[in-house]
Design goal:
CATH superfamily: P-loop containing nucleotide triphosphate hydrolases
Bound molecules: BIS(adenosine)-5'-pentaphosphate, zinc ion
Strand content: 5-15%
CATH topology: Rossmann fold
Number of helices: 9
Mean pLDDT: 95
Low-confidence stretches: none
């Protein structure tokens, strides 16, 4: 399975990615997680990306496309992969098309902006694994620590309310056009283009996983 999860910041891409990757036995390629790992490691990329991410803007297409191509060349991607938070601009999508990267399905998780601020303000993350929790909607088993490792959870620096607003604006202007891009491509060239499915992202985490699995079962 070669899959794109498309959706606004806080739509639940990372949360659903964990289930879907386990179900299909594929790696999760989250450009956000990759950038946060670079920030933590203090690499030159991390130092440059940190400022951009904290402002809510997007890291440059060239850097992101390079990172993803390098990741796709690793052997575990041969059996498939799930893109989480990528592509997020038309040039990023075009770069995959031009490189001949085959995709089976684009799955859009649709959540109204009004619900998103609450989701992000309650988010807590385990940086090493990318596992994500929510204080109210998806709490960890023990307060403040990761279910699997027992390590402390953190709040992302870009989850402050003003940064969230900026990220939503950036999504609306730069990423939402991909909805039409993939939906139109799928209609125009059903043989080569990935299938396109949109699911309602409101409801429990389990409800959304079952909607996703149902949508993916007949995506293409
Ligand atoms: P990235 O890490 O990709 O962030 P994002 O797209 O803004 O998405 P999020 O991770 O915030 O949300 P999510 O959809 O994964 O939601 P989650 O499952 O965590 O990018 C961060 C930054 O990196 C960007 O701003 C940019 O600067 C840079 N970047 C990354 N990729 C890039 C690219 N391709 N090009 C350029 N720049 C790039 O869920 C959110 C919360 O809701 C959690 O607390 C969760 O527990 C909760 N939740 C989940 N499901 C439900 C539910 N059903 N009901 C209630 N709560 C729920
Ligand atoms: Zn995420």
């Amino acid at each position: 399975m070669r899959l794109i999860l498309l959706g606004a910041p806080g739509a639940g891409k990372g949360t659903q990615a964990a289930f879907l990757c386990q179900k299909y036995g594929i790696p999760q390629i989250s450009t956000g997680d990759m950038l946060r790992a670079a920030v933590k490691a203090g690499t030159p990329l991390g130092l440059a990306a940190k400022k951009v991410m904290d402002s809510g803007a997007l890291v440059s297409d060239d850097i992101i496309i390079g990172l993803v191509k390098e990741r796709l060349a690793q052997p575990d991607c041969a059996k498939g992969f799930l893109f989480d938070g990528f592509p997020r601009t038309i040039p990023q999508a075009d770069a995959m098309k031009n490189a001949g990267v085959q995709l089976d399905c684009v799955l859009e998780i649709d959540v109204p902006f009004a619900a998103i601020v609450e989701r992000m303000s309650g988010r807590r993350s385990h940086p090493a694994s990318g596992r994500t929790y929510h204080l109210k909607f998806n709490p960890p088993k023990a307060e403040g620590v990761d279910d699997v490792t027992g390590e402390p959870l953190i709040q992302r620096d870009d989850d402050k309310e003003e940064t969230v607003q900026k990220r939503l604006e950036v999504y609306a202007s730069q990423t939402r056009p991909l909805v039409e891009y993939y939906a139109n491509w799928s209609k125009a060239d059903p043989v080569n283009a990935p299938g396109y499915r949109r699911i309602d992202g409101m409801g429990s985490v389990e409800d959304i996983t079952s909607r996703a699995l149902q949508a993916l079962a007949d995506c293409k």
